Fold each of these.
Amino acid sequence: MKFTIVSKGDEKSNLLEEKLRKYLADFQFVFDEKEPEMVISVGGDGTLLSAFQRYRHRLDETAFVGIHTGHLGFYADWMPDEIEKLVIAIARTECRIVEYPLLEVIIYYNKGKKEEHYLALNEATIKSVEGTFVIDVEIQDELFERFRGDGLCVSTPSGSTAYNKALGGAIIHPSLESIQISEMASINNRVFRTIGSPLILPHHHKCIFRPVTEKDFLIGIDHLSFIQRDIQSLQFKVADKKIRFARFKPFPFWSRVRGSFIGE
Ligand code: NAP
């Protein structure tokens, strides 16, 4: 089995990375940064997002495992003092593959620039570079609303506990293939009106955002953010591809939610 390790880069994570690399090599596993079959992230959920974006071109051939050097995470289920156990599990046991849905984002531009495709594990966000954000939201090719406010967030089920939750979105179990649109501070009064609630779209529905006046936007894809100019539209749907996690022990979603937000 070929593996690679993505570290958060702090001293604790780098030390663990070194140890893990040595232990796995002792079991004749091959370190291969280019074509890994297993990507082990050492850090936090943020590190797993970076690992996902780095290897998103190999989702069919790669399974992800997360070690958390802080508290237990949503994607990282192993603690630093369990790495010997993890290595033995990788070497000796058959893992269970758990798949989570992803968000596909396509950005179309004016003036002939080719469209760009992205995949998000947590979410995509769109905000104005300056001034009020105004965008027409279409669902299944029909105008749903003209949104005015700070911006919009489109999240995956596993990303529903991240930015989406801070925006009042629902927590969605990752077995439900869906995407969720949540509002950032919409303007609602006698003149302007938005739905005001998060919307959850099923696998077979797509949604399009069409800029009304301003065409330059600040786009966020997971931990990455960048300005994109002269946008004609943005399309969001559940991606055809999924992320695969290698599970060697149970990691129930609702226990993670309770552990993270309510406490043991
Ligand atoms: P960061 O700003 O350093 O950390 C954001 C926090 O979100 C970290 O505590 C991270 O956990 C946690 N997180 C990441 N994915 C999660 C998930 N699926 N469920 C629950 N918590 C999650 O940024 P980052 O580490 O690069 O992560 C980028 C993410 O930050 C974005 O995808 C977005 O979801 C989130 N974010 C949230 C807000 C907000 O809540 N207002 C604002 C901006 C961005 P770890 O400590 O384990 O890494």
Amino acid sequence: MDKKFRIGALISGGGTNLQAIIDSCEAGKIKGKLAFVGSDNPDAKGLERARRHKIPTFVVDYTSIIKRFKKKPDKALLPDDYNFDDLLSRQTLLLKNTDSKKTETFIMTRAIAEKELLDKMKPYPFDLLILAGFMRNLTPYFIDRVNTDPDHPRIMNIHPALLPAFSGTDGYGDTFQYGCKVGGCTVHFIDYGEDTGPIIGQKAFQIENNDTLDTIKKKGLALEWELYPECINLFAKNRLKTVKVSYILQNGEERERRIVKILGS
Ligand code: GAR
């Protein structure tokens, strides 16, 4: 491979997964490099990690964008190619019975922020975009502009639970509170739902009687740092293929979804 595999990353916090990926690249375990690190949070500690490794960084301050728009809903801020009905019909983040004003504000504010993200990513071409503790849901506005070929998704996420259990923002907390005896982490491609996309890899750990939320997080993170580089490597080596499968629900309804097949070494 002449050209190095280019990884773009979005983060919100401490960036320990980002660090594991930077280290894997620098150690040659991933034959690639970080093209940029972006964040929705100006104070994300992970930005400093990126700067230390001379990786370009940028911030799109979601909190300010959302606050400003709610105070003064100026539709002139919306991207030129914004199409509310189209986004509404494709998104599956919000339930159909969600208050329509709330839905509209959510889709508008995210499209404004996501357009800014796309603009800031533009100078840095990438092959794969990884979400490494990025705590914002992405809408079809962003996803479709990155995933231009539906057969080749290229946005990955790491989630702190064994999906499809415990999607959302507190995977380890939910696993612990439920009294699970096994916890874990999942890497998956992003689709239009919250943590619902095709699963690429998972790792699990035992939960013992004397475990606390803190010890569970420690066990989980240590596995995340192994799993994410492994999954990125599979992608870089062209070993991930998504295929459509259909299945029948108990009520007889037929559903279709994409799953990941890992191709031979
Ligand atoms: C990780 O545990 C990751 O799985 C989780 O945030 C943490 C980020 O840690 N992600 C999510 O919950 C996404 N919904 P890090 O900033 O140290 O990599």
